[in-house]
Each structure stands twice: as C-alpha cells, then as structure tokens.
Amino acid sequence: MEKRNLSWLTGPALFVALLAALLVTWAAMEPSALISAFDRGGYSPFELATIPFYLAIVPFVWWKCPFSGSRRRRTILCAMVSVVAVMAVVKELDLHNAALHMLYPDFVGDNGSLLPGLFKPNGKPLTGTPFKMRVLTNGAVPFGMKFAIVFYFAAFFGTFAAGFAYLGVTWIKGVFALDPASWAWGCFGGSGVVVQIADRLPAWLDHAHGLDKHAEGGASAASALCTCLEEGGELMIAVFALLTIWLGHKALGGGRGE
C-alpha cells in the first residue's frame, strides 16, 4: 500500500531531476558553446537528439494504449496523440516555416520570417514569424497561405486542446486521487510552461529595458540559461508524454480505469 501511495511521485521526481540536470549543464558550459549545442535553427545536436523522443510517441501510444473504452474511442484518441506528436516534430525541425517559404517565397524568407512588403493597418511593416493572427487578418496575404497557417494551428494546437478538454476532468480527478499517470501529465504541462517562459523571457527583458531584440552582442549567461531551459524543456515534454502513456497503460492493466 505504501508503494502505491508514493508511485505518484514518479513524475515530479523525474521533473526535478531533469530540471536539475539542465541547470548543471548550464553552469558547466560556456554560454556560447551551450547555445551552439542546444539551439541552431532546429538542427543542433541537442535538438536533433530530441526528435526521436517525439517520433517514439506515435508507435508507443498505439502499442501501449493508455485509453479505456470502446475500440473507436481508443482509436480516435490515439490518432489525436499521433497527430500532435507529428506536428511537434514539424515544429522542432521548422518544417512549417520551410513549407511556407517554398510555397510563398515572396512573403516568407528562407529563415521562416516575413519578408518586407506586408504592413499593419498603421503602415508599419509586419515582422517576425508568419504564424500570427495579424498575418491572418492582413488582406495582402494570399488565401492559400492563410489556409496553411490555419491548418498548422488546427492540427497542432487545436487537436491538443480538443483532447485536453475531453480528458480534462479525468486528469483533475486523477491528480487528487494521486494517480501516477495524471501527475506525469501534470509534469508534461509544467515542462510546457518552462518552455514558454524561457522562450518569451529574453523578449520581455529586452522590451522592459528598451533594447533592440535584433541588436548584436555576445552570448550571455542569461541567454544561455533561457536557451537551455527552452530546448531542454521541449525534450522534457516528449519524455513526460511517453511516461504518461506508459503509466496510463499500466493503470488499465491494473483494472483502475483511465
């Protein structure tokens, strides 16, 4: 009984261990070397090592299905997980940006950023990634490009949101019941929060201090930390997805439902 009561700590313990490993790596490496190893436009050694974890989700969720219910229900949910995992690989490798550049080279550059020529209603040029609402509402953007952007959001974030909404109550109940799979899924979400904060923090700090985000400068310990947490957090997301699938499958084998 004691072992069962403590098994819910599997996810949190792994979360702390992985986060500590990232912090130790950051402390041990020079900032420029860490950024080069962790972030190189989707093709750094660490980023490439992350891809197999996301790809492994697809066969693993079908092999060790963590969902109960009818065959149709299990098939639909496993298919949704597979779609999200594939789209995560697309995002990791920046294939969505590459596809838009190939299809619409007059609007999207080879680095995935918007080219000069698109403007906001106030006359200022549009900058940054094309995957923004301001691009979808811009009349100069071709319909096909808008459709591709909407498809990306629907397949990735829309599928994930629909699955989470459907299983949200089950997850919340599992958290309070100290269910290991539910706590592992919570760590999945916690990893996503780490990624989002590390991704946005440099821009927030630059904006707060009135700095140009495109200004050149040497790699700092702060920027290296954000890079380490962002890229490491993306690996953690895949790890906890796999762990949640495994623990959910084990729970079904034990006759405890979802």
Provide structural commentary.
With 258 residues, the protein is mainly alpha-helical. It has 10 helices and no strands. It has helices at 2-6, 10-28, 31-38, 45-63, 71-92, 95-103, 133-136, 143-176, 180-208, 221-253. α2 (10-28) packs antiparallel against α10 (221-253) and α8 (143-176) packs across α9. The radius of gyration is 20 Å and the shape is globular. The two termini are 20 Å apart.
Unreliable runs, pLDDT <50, ≥5 residues? Answer: 209-217, 254-258
Main sheet properties: none
Q: Compute the average pLDDT.
A: 87
Question: What is the string of helix and strand elements?
Answer: HHHHHHHHHH
Strand content: under 5%
Layout of SSEs?
Layout: H1 2-6, H2 10-28, H3 31-38, H4 45-63, H5 71-92, H6 95-103, H7 133-136, H8 143-176, H9 180-208, H10 221-253
Helix pairs in contact: 2-9, 2-10, 3-10, 4-5, 4-10, 5-8, 8-9, 9-10
Relevant terms:
258 residues; mainly alpha; 10 helices; globular; disordered C terminus
In short:
This protein is mostly helical and 258 residues long. The protein has 10 helices and no strands.
